[in-house]
Amino acid sequence: MELFLTIIILLALIxxxxxxxxxxxxxxxxxxxxxxxxxxxxxxxxxxxxxxxxLFFVLFIAPLxxxxxxxxxxxxxxxxxxxxxxxxxxxxxxxxxIVGYAIHWMIPAIPLPVAFGLAAxxxxxxxxxxxxxxxxxxxxxxxxxxxxxxxxxxDASGLVAFKFAVAAAVTGVFSxxxxxxxxxxxxxxxxxxGIVLGMLIxxxxxxxxxxxxxxxxxxxxxxxxxxxxxYLIAEELGVxxxxxxxxxxxxxxxxxxxxxxxxxxxxxxxxxxxxxxxxLLNGLVFVILGLQLPHVFREVFEEPRxxxxxxxxxxxxxxxxxxxxxxxxxxxxTLGKNWFDQENKNNKIxxxxxxxxxxxxxxxxxxxxxxxxxxxxxxxxAPFPERSLVIFLAGVVILLSLIAASTLLPLxxxxxxxxxxxxxxxxxxxxxxxxxxxxxxxHQVTVEENKVESAVIIGNYDRWKRQTKLAKTSSGRRKFQxxxxxxxxxxxxxEIERETxxxxxxxxxxxxxxxxxxxxxxxxLKLLLSGGTYRSRLFFxxxxxxxxxxxxxxxxxxxxxxxxxxFTEFWAIKQRTSKAVLEAFRALPASxxxxxxxxxxxxxxxxxxxxxxxxxxxxxxxxxxQRDLQWIAVQAERNEVQAMFERGDIGRKTANExxxxxxxxxxxxxx
Length: 671
What we know:
Strand content: under 5%
Low-confidence stretches: 339-344, 416-421, 473-482, 556-561, 615-620
Structural class: mainly alpha
Shape: elongated
Helix content: over 70%
Number of helices: 25
Distance between the termini: 47 Å
Number of domains: 2
């Protein structure tokens, strides 16, 4: 029961972190999740979870790296193969030697093999942390591909170097030729195992489909188990499980490309399921990291041999050394590339890009998990030298790298203030992509029974796309659907409708169920159009009323089974309230926003008139089916916006504006 409660609390913290991130935009989600985990562990009688390194790697790192390998751009990785290898292998071993010697010289209490081990575990960048920052920081695409490729490859080299350094500290024996040969065997073997197992698992899936076993749930289960199988089998064979998971992800992506046109719905199901898994695992990695930090800090801060300020200074110096070494390493590589590349010999080196590359070397949970895997005792039975201090230094460097990247990278990535037209073009680009996603989603669920309704929805989106293209060529600064001024007028119109309904109820007898249903529809519209704290308060009020309506069948809130007479009266009320809005808005000064709201209410009146003439079935097909298809389209839009944001195609500001436009579309569906 205790484990179950722990998991529930950790999952709840992931949700809380994302809610907080929507209101605290300048702090990235990983730092919020670390802070929540830290606070949970720091409170009296707080939760503490022992970090089992082997379980952590197989449960979190293997599936996350498999997913990253699956979505990595293969063409970009191949194009950047030289700098990726230069960073993921060359920089790792340079860090072990240079930073390792520097740590031993600065802190003589840490023996040289242990210093090498600390430098080795600090050398790999974390793919999970890099991808978490990518959505918030609009980095150049080439740099993102370089960082992703480096993070996928350098875990293996860093962990292998760490393994040999710790072995040397435990046994007192080290052989450079043996270590070099072992590294090649472990790395190449891991890649080979990943490719071979990837081929076998793909073959198994194809054989199952040809045998008539088309159960998508079973195929989804097989795909979920794949990264764990890749990692565990590779580790059992004595090679890199991390590289096996990455190679398996790459091979799966190749197989997916071949079958994308044959099984689009299956791939969509796999994508949605994996997006949930990755979302949870990403969050758990950082929350668990935060849970470990109080214990890590307490052991060192309570140790009388160490001055707290001095050990924090050691961590800061180590972090600066890692930054400087990374900067110089990339600078030398860029300079050497220009020397040997005669065509680009005179190209200027971008120090801004070098600085961004240096700061992007974020350390994460891989580093802390590796540090926790340090044994408690050496071969002679004595305690491992300065184990607590090594784990503490690793933890502080992780925090410093995350803080530096999240604060300084946005400033460097932004550079000069971009003109408004750039943001406007990004907004138009995002609108076009999310509308295309909506059209694809409707096409996928179109069958003979809903052809008419699907054509109406697709026709609407085609019209909106044409309007978007017109906006691209327009020289004026066109307002978008989510414009703040129009939103305020829409809210004002809802209040006029509310007051009109109250007046109608006082003047004549109106069905209480129709009036309640109408008032609830106004609340739903206000919920969609409002923002901030008021929106949250209105949401909870609405949910309480819905719950009461479900529990108490004869409650005024129970309007799910509204009669045809009540529904007719509802539309009669809507006609009168819409006329009241139009009459009130005629007195307002003319403006683009006012005209849009007036046009909206004229369309409502026309729709009400059509319903009174032809009933609830119109030439556009069944209204219920049409509304269901529209909800599918809206959800596809929302998914596409999130995908664009996570890929770094759009910034947070654009994503929020697109989400607001989607909420406006939902409001239109409700009406």
